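Rotation project, supervised by the postdoc (A.L.). Task for the rotation student: set up a whole-complex structure prediction and record inputs and outputs verbatim in this book. Inputs entered:
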Amino acid sequence: MRLLPLIELSLIKATPLALAALGGLFSERVGVVNIALEGMMLAGAFGAILGAYFTGSPIIGVIIGSAFGMALALIHGITSITLKGDHIVSGVAVNILALGGTGFLLYRIFGVHGTSPSAPKLGFIRIGGDFSLSPLFLLALFLVFSSLFLFYRTPLGLRMRAVGEDPEVARSLGIEVAKLRYLGVIISGVLCGIAGGELSLVDLSQFVERMTGGRGFIALACLIIASWRPGRVLAVALFFGVADALADSLQLTNLPLPSEFFLSLPFILTIILLAGFVPGVRPPASLGKQIRED
Amino acid sequence: MIPLLKRARHLLFVLLIALFLSGFIVFLSGGSPRLFFLLLYTGSMGDKEVFLSTLIKATPLILTGLSVAIALQGGLFNIGAEGQLYLGGLASAIVGGLAPLPPPIHLPLVLLSSFAAGALLGFLAGWLRARRGAHEVITTIMLNYIVIYLTGYLVRGPLSAGEAIPKTREIASSASLPIIAEAGSSQLSFGFIIAIVIVFLAYLYLFKTPFGYEVRAMGRNRRAAQRAGIDVGRRMISLMALAGGLSGLAGGIEVAGLHHTFYSQFSPGYGYDGIAVALLGGNHPLFVPFSALFFGALRTADRTLQLEGGIPRDIVLIVQALVIIVVCARNWRFFAKLIRRRKGNEIASSN
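Outputs recorded:
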């Protein structure tokens, strides 16, 4: 097995996970549980195809995709922040809405079920020789480092973390708690939308119903295993990317294992990791809790 | 009885809002809301055939709805109903495929095996939560994917009946549930009666037994329950096992009463529908059948909606999501406040 293609494949597999998990981090670091990553990614994947198909530009596609992710995030925000619904229940609703909404629009706009027509793909960036990278991987890398800077080096980041740890104290310091919660949730939608764009415009060049196939939940697991820290999120996403790429390549060799084994591998791995003791896992203290009315 | 009446009123209120919103969405997408509501009615209760079909689809929903509801009563979120249903369906197809046995033995064995298979999955999630601290929301979702892939492999490979469609062998006739009503292509099996009986059992269990009391205490305030001497960890594990068992039984009844075989992509999402069923029913066992009936009607009408109304069948999922959002929103006073503030501004600006 050659090493270079394997690294390439690993990075492709890791990109949507890293983006979505980082999105989840923004939401959960301000205290809003987000199991809607899956749905926001799916909406992003659909929006990206829609944009790329009608404008012919995959870059505009990714932007439309992130807007789709953001729209769903806004619904999650309204339900869980303003209307004070249970965060997990709201997340379930958003996931179902994404599933139904993308199917609904796919039929209404393209008149088909299942698979959309193809749209122009987002090209790879060639980095010397045979090695090329998805531009969205570079974006993910950049976003991880800028969120490290944001959370640990800027007043805004400090405030966001404060809201996630103790909204009451944050409020007493004059921080607008609800606004920062919305900000975190909306950023998560944008990032998940981009992650969806990676799936539909880089991996493939079309939208397939349910194409996220649980990656949003794996991203959520990445976030938990990474203990809600941006640097570790990238590391864990890369780990899952490598595992996924290995599974893909093993599938091509003649091992007597069914494809379903490799498909379920990331889920099995996640349960084992969550059940074992991952050192130092500590969620933001106010995660899932409602904030008091102003 | 007053709380029950209040709950019924709440259920109707939520339904009306969700239906109104869905009609609005149909309108936005260029369809006719009137046609939507008309087809929703004729497509699910217009004649005996579709009405029976509504009852057939409500049967698994009652059980997955109960599964989610009793777990939520204990403060646990079972998103794993879908996987539990798959494993239960597979187990009953295996047991049902054994050489014919006398029906009074075979049939209960089939249903028990489906319950046991689902309970096993629920037990695993409960154990992971209580003993290893892995949140049940995440683990049950992961288990759904694992089980669906696993059963998909099994019916394609080792358990395949050898036909083009990956499915198991037909179950023996001694393992099938009797049919109690029939119209056109709709055959309602005795499974519906079983589901209704289990509704009452679940009610008695939750509200009339010490165990149920402990479960509800745990759901209200886990720490207080623990202080009061309830072994919360053990309750969590047994509650999840029970919840899993109910969803497994839903799969078993699907096999023994309807499909008579297990195939990949066995359920159109009855497990996930169970979440909406439970929430719309206020997690109360006695209200679960009504909300299951509503979602069963939606699932039955989706064909008519698409074929005769050109409204994509995915509208069913959108209605479901809206119902969940409306149920989960707590702070409706926000809107009242918003309106009041707007009025206040108008008065202020007119002065």
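Student's summary: Residues 3-275 of chain A form a domain with the ABC transporter involved in vitamin B12 uptake, BtuC fold (CATH 1.10.3470).
Supervisor addendum: Chain A has a mean pLDDT of 90.
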